[in-house]
Amino acid sequence: MKILVTGGAGYIGSHTVLSLLNNDFDVIVYDNLSNANIESIRRVENLTGKKVSFIKGDIQDKATLTKVFSEFVIDAVIHFAALKAVGESSTLPLKYYQNNVHGTLNLLEVMMAFRVYDFIFSSSATVYGGENVVPYEETMPLGEASSPYGASKVMIERALKDLAQANSEFRAVCLRYFNPIGAHESGDIGEDPKGIPNNLLPYVAQVAVGKRESLQVFGNDYSTQDGTCERDYLHVMDLAEGHVSAVNWLKKNSSFTGVEAFNLGTGRAISVLEIINAFEQACQQKIPYHFAPRRYGDLPAFWANAEKANKQLGWKATRNISQMMADTWRWQSNNPQGYPN
Ligand SMILES: NC(=O)c1ccc[n+]([C@@H]2O[C@H](COP(=O)([O-])OP(=O)(O)OC[C@H]3O[C@@H](n4cnc5c(N)ncnc54)[C@H](O)[C@@H]3O)[C@@H](O)[C@H]2O)c1
Question: Of the candidates 9, 133, 298, 301, which lies 20 to 30 Å from 113 by C-alpha distance?
Fold first, then answer.
């Protein structure tokens, strides 16, 4: 089975490509490398001993997408390609809608033209917005997104539903990720953010290797156990395996049409301070941090009800927080500057 993976050179994409190859799928990666390094794919090839077809291309470029679909017989698409910096999306909303929404519509149009109907979409817990009560369940209505980034995910989920309604052959799985962290256990691939990291763990890891001085913890007066925000962190390899489960689920359920959403999380929330403590254990050093005011849009705590993925996909996050920290530290200490340029 041949799978086109857009954004496959990025953080979650590269780990998923590795899992797909280890499960005997053929993979074509389509990535414009705007937030990735081709070295991630070379390392995945080394780790698996298998070849990946790589095409440098943009999902906004229909001509190149069309060329790819005419060259390869593609059975399914896993769509990671997106811009993901929540803060930046508020200052550059059109760039985010253009890249994420317009790019996805382009991709879907080309898929329809080539009669490729199986689609797995990188959605996010952010689609639940602030209105729903935790833990989030898939039956809940989508919320009011607090950023253009979040809105782009809500819009795409809606477009997938409309497409499935109009075309009975189209089948989509929306995987709503909670907070992926960690790295492959080899320490060879991991998260390599360009510039200042937007997410907690890469920032903590860069402080630990001396690349950044100290960590800012945004808010210590939330109504949580220790006053800091709580999130449902899951190991990126568990998340990667969730994609393999989703592809297998589509394959097995040949009569399924429409759109199905699944939460991918552990079902447990961990605070920022707990993360710092756990990381200190892993790297055996103190992480300097200080408290800063709350950040606009941050919710106090959210986590997944991941029962549906467990029951239907047969998927469960199995790696614990110390594995997440140990693997992050292995990646960061082996690659203090990230992938070589
Ligand atoms: N990391 C998270 O915390 C998180 C949480 C929820 C959802 N997601 C979603 O998961 C997906 C992957 O996230 P990630 O953390 O691996 O991010 P990432 O930035 O590492 O990966 C995204 C990849 O897409 C590529 N890309 C971006 N725009 C493109 C375009 N127009 N054409 C072709 N390639 C393009 C980038 O070069 C990069 O390789 C994204 O859709 C993101 O919104 C991520």
Answer: 9
Supply the range of the domain harboring residue 297: 200-231+268-310+320-334
Q: Tens digit of pLDDT for each residue in 235-290?
A: 999 999 999 999 999 999 999 999 999 999 999 999 999 999 999 999 999 999 99
Two tokens, residue 266: 């552990």
Residue 203 annotated among the catalytic residues of the structure: no
Instruction: Report the phi/psi class of residue 12: left, alpha or beta, with left for phi > 0 and alpha for psi in -120 to 50.
Output: alpha
| Cα-only R_g, the chain | 19
60 lines ligand 1 (CB under 6 A): yes
Q: Which amino acid is at 175?
A: L
CATH number, domain containing residue 175:
3.40.50.720
Please report the DSSP string for 283-306 in residue order. HTS---EEEEPPPTT--SB--B--
Residues 224 and 156 in one domain: no
Q: Which two tokens stand for residue 128?
A: 């639940």
177 lines ligand 1 (CB under 6 A): yes
- Which atom of ligand 1 is least distant from the CA of 191? 20
Q: Which residue has the tokens 């050093």?
A: 285
Q: Is residue 70 in some structural domain? A: yes
Beta strand pairing call for 233-235 and 289-292: unpaired
Question: What is the per-residue pLDDT across 21-52, written as a single tens digit (0 to 9) for each?
Answer: 999 999 999 999 999 999 999 999 999 999 99
Could you give the count of Cα atoms lying within 13 Å of 37 in the half-sphere of its Cβ?
A: 14
Tokens of 265: 């999380």
